[in-house]
Amino acid sequence: MKALKIVGISLLVLILIFLSFGFLKPEIAYESEVVIEKPIEEVWAIMQDESRINEWLKEVKKIEHISGEKGKAGAESKIYVEQNGEEMFMVETINSIEEQDHMECTFTMDFMTMDYRIQLEDLGGKTRVTSKSVTTGNGMMAKSMLAFMGGAMEDQENLNMTNLKTLVENNTVDYFPEETMEVVESDSTGTVEEI
Q1: Which residue, 65, 86, 69, 85, is CA-closest to 77?
Q2: Which InterPro entries match (predicted)?
Q3: pLDDT tens per residue, range 41-63
Q4: pLDDT tens, 87-100?
Q5: Is 153:30 a contact under the CB 8 Å cutoff?
Q6: What residues have CB less than 8 Å from 62, skipping those under 6 apart?
Q7: Backbone Cα Rg of the chain
Q8: Inter-residue contact 40 to 120 (CB < 8 Å)
Q9: First-to-last CA distance in the chain?
Q10: How far apart are CA 120 and CA 90, in angstroms?
Q11: What are 101-152's pLDDT values in tens digits?
Q12: Burial class of residue 49, CB neighbours in 10 A (0-12, 13-18, 19+)
């Protein structure tokens, strides 16, 4: 009986220690940065191309637009991700977006809420891309679990940013095709016709 009491007290102490991590560190904040050897226009175009999102955010399987004007502040989408063979979704709400400058979003799941900002800076033919994330667990247990997951989440964001850099620097898609106009004289009067 005494041994059972000691085990019970030990277990209670461990649970209290675990929960205290969530109380002491209720949110996880981290940043990541890369410099991409391509102009800001191309970086932005690739980041906004949903058909290529899983080339740099490897866990994203599909995006389903829910409401608001797509790609504008207030728009909401379901983002389906796969982690360890398990599929789940989060709701992305765009809070602020300015072309070739930044995008601020909130990602909401049952387990957690993440405020995310990605900022672009023109470096004269190169682009600095900086992401900032603040993640809060939804509930004491989730906050405590996040306290132990912070390093893994930061590592994942660093990998995402490295994937973006590689994708953009190896890009072969022409997002800005130049229109060519051929000028041909159509008759002897000098009338010019565009084709």
Answers
A1: 65
A2: Polyketide_cyclase/dehydratase, START-like_dom_sf
A3: 999 999 999 999 999 999 999 99
A4: 999 999 999 999 99
A5: yes
A6: 79, 80
A7: 24
A8: yes
A9: 94
A10: 24
A11: 999 999 999 888 999 999 999 999 999 999 999 988 887 777 667 776 778 8
A12: middle
Rounded alpha-carbon distances, angstroms, from residue 95 to 79, 83, 98, 100: 16, 26, 11, 16
pLDDT at residue 183, as a whole number: 53
- Cα-Cα-Cα-Cα torsion 168, 65, 137, 129, nearest 10 degrees, comes to 20
The one-letter amino acid code at 151 reads: G
Structure-token pair, residue 15: 């649970």
Name the amino acid, one letter, at 7.
V
Q: Which two tokens stand for residue 83?
A: 């982690």
Our measurement of the distance from residue 174's CA atom to the centroid of its chain's CA atoms, rounded to an integer in Å, reads 23
Task: Look up residue 113 and give its two tokens.
Answer: 């809420």
Do 91 and 103 touch, CB atoms closer than 8 A? no
